[in-house]
Amino acid sequence: MRELLIYQSKGEGELFQKQSPEQLMPVDSGAEISVVDLDDNLTYQQMDGFGASFTDSAAYLIHQVLDAEQQAEVMTKLFDPQDGIGLSVLRNPMGASDYARTLYSYNDLPEQETDPELIRFSVAHDEGDIIPLLQQALKLNPAIKLFASPWSAPGWMKTNGSMKAGQLKKEHYGTYANYFVRYIQAYADKGLPIYAVTPQNEPLYEPAHYPSMLMQPEVQIDFIKKHLKPAFIAHQLETKILSYDHNWDRPDYPLTVLEQANEEVDGVAWHWYGGKPSAQSEVFEAFAGKEVHFTEGSGGEWIPPFEQAFSNVMRTGIEILNNHSKSFILWNMALDEHNGPTVPGFGTSTCRGIVQVNQQTRKLVYTLDYYALAHFSKIIRPQAVRIASAAGNEVIRSVAFKNTDQSIAAVLFNDSGKAENIAVKLQGTEVLTFRLEAKSALSILISDSVE
């Protein structure tokens, strides 16, 4: 007997509502029906999952501002696969990012001092808020995979002596590789295995108002090939290395890195602040077998109206998955009522967190990003394999996966300005017909119950 689990979002106030087939709008009789064909004979990437980042700011808000009861609630709703949405990938900054209360690395020194042996290396900062929350998340969902990316090397390793802007000094390439090793080992000692790292967050962007470090492709090739990968091998680390970690508009960067450091690189990480998701497929097709990951995308006040903002996450998320990504990771897990905290000197923040924690009132609000991620994460589980999903009408965006329990998960989004009649078919057999309102999302989990 076939069972259907359905969640629908129709707008503000009606987000990710569980529905029965009978509660869905019936199709208009005699009206044209858009068919969405699902075919599990055609398979693509295996999914790692969906998530966000425990930046210093996000971890502080959840761990220190919320009370124990609120913290337990939000962690359950974020990570528990049954009682929450089961987020299963986390990408953490290695040291301070733009969303941190202070500027810090894991090896901060007074001016003019250096520490090539990393004697003063310590992840003590993360033991306050970040590590306890990561440990709690893994207890709630042992399938979680951890990614890590630095916004900058410690200032003393750089050309300008600062964590803001500048480049890595050539003489410190080996030291910086060992910095990664020490970080991975320190986290492993806390029961937190790091699945993958990128050498640098947004290597082509060098802002002077928050931690950053310019890393051109030839530098990344040299660093990975001659230092980072050899250091991982020497210390028997299985952590994967992902190239790039920047926007879709420069596929030439990862293509160059993969051409020259193919053996040392496991895949490519992407952001959505420029270009199109098809760049992921362009690089994947040139280097089949390399992993594709989407590691950062933030919503915010630059997309102010609710509908446009929700539509952006749904539409883009579906495209990201249809272009071979094994992950879909948004940005801050939590921000406050001022879209912060941010590093001193950052200025005005317009980003949006998965949840909002008001520092004055301690009120906890689940944002539209939480509900958009829920449409994917609740039904597409770790190790699910993407299957073919073809919609007869281009305004109906769709993506589908087959979970390890053989259930089929499909996410649909009506990207038109009017309601559309839809029929979902699996291997040619009709599963469900309904009418989906404009800019509405629907997630369906199709399973066959054992009699």
From TrEMBL:
InterPro entries with a match to the protein in the record: GH, GH30_C, Glyco_hydro_30, Glyco_hydro_30_TIM-barrel, Glyco_hydro_b
Glycosyl hydrolase family 30 TIM-barrel domain boundaries: 48-380
Record SUPFAM superfamilies: (Trans)glycosidases
Keyword Hydrolase: yes
Gene3D superfamilies: Glycosidases, Golgi alpha-mannosidase II
GO molecular function: hydrolase activity
Coiled coil: none
Sequence ranges assigned to domain Glycosyl hydrolase family 30 beta sandwich in this UniProt record: 384-442
Keywords attached to this entry: Glycosidase, Hydrolase, Signal
Assigned protein family: Belongs to the glycosyl hydrolase 30 family.
Protein name in UniProt: Glycosyl hydrolase
